[in-house]
Amino acid sequence: MAGLAAVLFDMDGLLVDTEPLWFETETEVMARLDTPWTKQDQEALLGGSMEATVGYLLAKAERPASPADVERWMTEGMLGRVRAGRVDVRPGARELLAEVAAAGLPSALVTSSQRSLAEAVLAGTGFRFPVTVCGDDVATTKPDPAPYLLAAKLLEVEPDRCVALEDSPNGVASATAAGCRVVAVPSFLDIPPAPGRLVVTSLRDVSVATLRALVG
What we know:
This protein is α/β, with parallel strands linked by helices.
């Protein structure tokens, strides 16, 4: 067998523009810890897990708090913003998802976000995936390859016949380490082209033909 077998989609920053909501939530949590928060701090966490985020916040915090409390504040803050209808779909996302489905290609959502947040985003956008892999489904999340390896396993396809679409260096590193081809649509941080990797400015620049050509 050869050719494209499945398409794997990141969520935050790729399909939906939730990064401003993450920044608001992180800023709010750090205010409770008497600590300022910057865009540079947010960039350090792009594509990472909740565990990594909580660890980073506590390492900077001027006032002590438990990891459980910080995680709860982060989760509640994000869920409140998502459920308030503040999630914007990225340009080209709906069209590409529809084209992938029309082509009969299996797809999966592969996100570092917790399942509760992913399900809230899916409910708000109406996006549907036969397989979803969230941060709490794996022992180690992006940039580790585990999330993409699990998605390929659940779809019963080989990773090297998958194309992963990502917006962050952590996500690209995860997909690449799993053996996937990658389409990068950088959100905040630059991602250079590389063998097996296509870099574009928008999902509007991506079609099923683009994905098939990347796998060969």
